[in-house]
Design a protein that fits this description.
The complex is a heterodimer. By secondary structure, chain A is an alpha/beta fold. In chain A, about 30% of the residues lie in helices and about 25% in strands. Chain A is globular. In chain B, strand 1, helix 1 and strand 2 form a beta-alpha-beta unit. The chains are: A alpha/beta, B alpha/beta. The complex binds flavin-adenine dinucleotide.
Chain lengths: ~270, ~300
């Protein structure tokens, strides 16, 4: 069995940049491997370590621009997951890419189909930048296979995958036949940190660049447009000063009283 | 404009509140899962109700099948669901099938030049995104933020459909989560604890304080997810609960964006942290630089003498 892992190269939310009009400058924010996708990689590695998988391939679509700078940034990031133990990476680069989860999922599905035979497709429950949680199940639909999300435990057994999944008010144990797509939560495991040796060895592993012509996609249309603006901090930001704790507490209670909040049960 | 609201009857009612700003000129239909009574259906403010009696909305497969059946017969500009985890699966699948864009966790919508613009939070809560989607589009609405609204529409027609109920996912076991009656989502005051607490036992201070001021206890992710000192119903943030209390008291919480993403709708935020450089202070109304182990006992002492 081979495992495909969907890995998003997200913009790093800790380095948000804004222009003069307070708009998010996505093109200038550095990329990072979306945190929860590292958990998906880790889970794939654990399944392989149990002797249940032969090959692990990662699939990414470069969604935040396809300049040379972005491509090399992406390649370096993919080296991180290759160093964790992924065998090979596929990276879709297309200057004609038009933002929409619809196209991302179509591209991923076609890349996966073209790359080989994958029984289990793993992904993070959401990416840290958009937090949309759409792509895993869209890919499943595109491939015509089942989708189970929010996994916090996975067991591969006799052509099936048993998943313990986390829902709002319940925890479900579900079973699906392979092939299937499973998205995981951050709680499923702790992703390993590769050693220096592994990082060096990863330089030899392939990052395959895939172009539009390789997968034959119809032209993409603008179907989903957005403008993101920085949230202005509308908090007072008052630091309560005082020589003693008692003084600070008095002042805090006074300040809250002025806001109409009294701190004892009525 | 034609809009389809889909879900359990309570969810459909909630969704009428979400679409109110765009509903005046729209034709609104409902796809209802389960077996609600006729009166209940008629109390919905929609012009047509389609009832899928044998669809169980706790299965994404059922939601997908019912939606595909309805969308195969009628074209809608917006297909709207509450963004529960199961619905996020179903919504994504349906959107892919009909070749449509979708958004998750929409927190608002308004008309700009006659077309709906949807609002959602991105970049771990640091930015607000205004999104326009070509129709048809699937909209998944952040749960619990909307109340039913009378859009002036009355149910004219009730149609019934049934689905095959073929499922790809087999539920082997379903365990209800232990809920000790904690609902931080509804709390007026929250005392929230973070890694500044050194041990699980020390959290009892926070619980005592909460009891004294009639608050619920919330926490940052590490307390629930990594240390497991508290159950998940206390967990607040991007991947936890979103809260909107009158007063949020963050104690020993550094103020990382993923935590802040869950508390943005709080009216007043108070932070207690011993590090004057902690980011939480920038995102608070009132901050006290103090060791929580000194602050909490003193505060409780003050409050209990006041109460007498
Ligand atoms: C995809 C993703 C999703 C996430 N989702 C969430 C989420 O939903 N919710 C969430 O909370 N986090 C979430 N996180 C984690 C988040 O990034 C932070 O790691 C977390 O919020 C930090 O928790 P903390 O503030 O309790 O701990 P820390 O960051 O360790 O802060 C502890 C604070 O306590 C202070 N302190 C220490 N001792 C004392 C004392 N004696 N008195 C007073 N103050 C003291 C310190 O100065 C420090 O500021 C997520 C992360 C990712 C990547």
């Amino acid at each position: 069995m081979n495992i495909a892992v969907l890995v998003k190269l997200s913009v790093d939310t800790s380095y948000m940049r804004l222009d003069q009009n307070n708009r998010v400058l996505f093109s200038e924010i550095p990329l990072k491997v979306s945190d929860i996708d590292r958990n998906a990689v880790e889970e794939a590695l654990r399944i392989k370590q149990q002797g249940l998988a032969n090959k692990i391939s990662s699939f990414s679509v470069l969604t935040w621009g396809s300049s040379d700078k972005r491509v090399s940034e992406a390649q370096n990031l993919l080296r991180e997951i290759l160093a964790m133990g992924v065998d090979e990476s596929y990276l879709y680069v297309d200057p004609g890419f038009v933002y929409s989860h619809l196209y991302t999922a179509k591209i991923l599905a076609r890349m996966i189909r073209k790359a080989g035979d994958y029984s289990l497709i793993l992904a993070g429950e959401a990416s840290i930048d958009g937090y949309s949680s759409q792509v895993p199940c869209r890919v499943a639909e595109e491939l015509g296979i089942p989708c189970v999300s929010y996994a916090r435990r996975i067991e591969v057994k006799e052509g099936k995958v048993i998943v313990e999944r986390d829902l709002e008010d319940s925890v479900e144990v579900v079973g699906v036949k392979l092939p299937a797509v499973v998205s995981v939560t951050r709680e499923i495991n702790t992703p390993r940190l590769p050693t220096l040796l592994q990082i060096r060895a990863a330089m030899r592993k392939p990052v395959n660049i895939i172009k539009a012509s390789d997968i034959g996609l119809e032209p993409m249309k603008k179907i989903h447009e957005f403008v993101a603006e920085g949230v202005k901090i509308q908090r007072k930001g008052v630091i309560i000063e005082g020589k003693t704790v008692d003084e600070k507490i008095e002042k805090l209670l006074e300040a809250l009283a002025k806001e109409g909040i009294t701190l004892y049960r009525g | 404009m034609k809009i389809l609201l889909a879900g359990r009857i309570s969810e459909v009612a909630e969704l009428t509140g979400f679409i109110a700003p765009i509903s005046s000129t729209a034709d609104i239909h409902a796809l209802i899962f389960g077996k609600p009574g006729e009166d209940e259906i008629r109390s919905l403010s929609v012009s047509k109700a389609i009832v899928a009696e044998n669809a169980d909305p706790s299965y994404a497969d059922d939601v997908v099948e019912a939606l595909k059946a309805v969308l195969g017969k009628e074209v809608y500009d917006y297909i709207v669901l509450v963004a529960t985890r199961i619905n996020k699966e179903a919504g994504a699948r349906v959107a892919q099938t009909i070749g449509a864009p979708a958004i998750t966790e929409a927190i608002g919508v308004r008309l700009e030049d006659g077309s709906p613009v949807f609002i959602r939070s991105v970049m771990a809560g640091k930015a607000i995104s205004k999104e326009t989607l070509s129709s048809p589009a699937v909209i998944m609405v952040a749960p619990g933020r909307n109340k039913p609204v009378d859009t002036g529409k009355r149910v004219g027609e009730i149609q019934r459909i049934s689905i095959s109920g073929k499922r790809s996912v087999e539920i082997i076991e379903r365990k209800g989560k232990e809920r000790k009656g904690v609902r931080v989502e509804d709390a007026e005051i929250i005392v929230s604890v973070g890694r500044g607490f050194k041990s699980k036992e020390d959290l009892s201070m926070a619980f005592k304080l909460a009891e004294l001021i009639g608050a619920q206890v919330g926490c940052s992710r590490p307390i629930a997810a990594d240390l497991k000192w508290l159950s998940e119903e206390h967990w607040i943030g991007l991947s936890g609960k979103k809260v909107r209390p009158k007063l949020y008291i963050a104690i020993g919480i550094s103020g990382q964006p993923q935590h802040l993403a869950g508390i943005m709708d709080s009216k007043i935020i108070v932070a207690i942290n011993k590090d004057p450089g902690a980011p939480i202070f920038k995102y608070s109304d009132y901050g006290v630089v103090e060791d929580l182990y000194v602050f909490i006992p003193k505060l409780m002492e003050k409050l209990s003498t006041r109460q007498k």
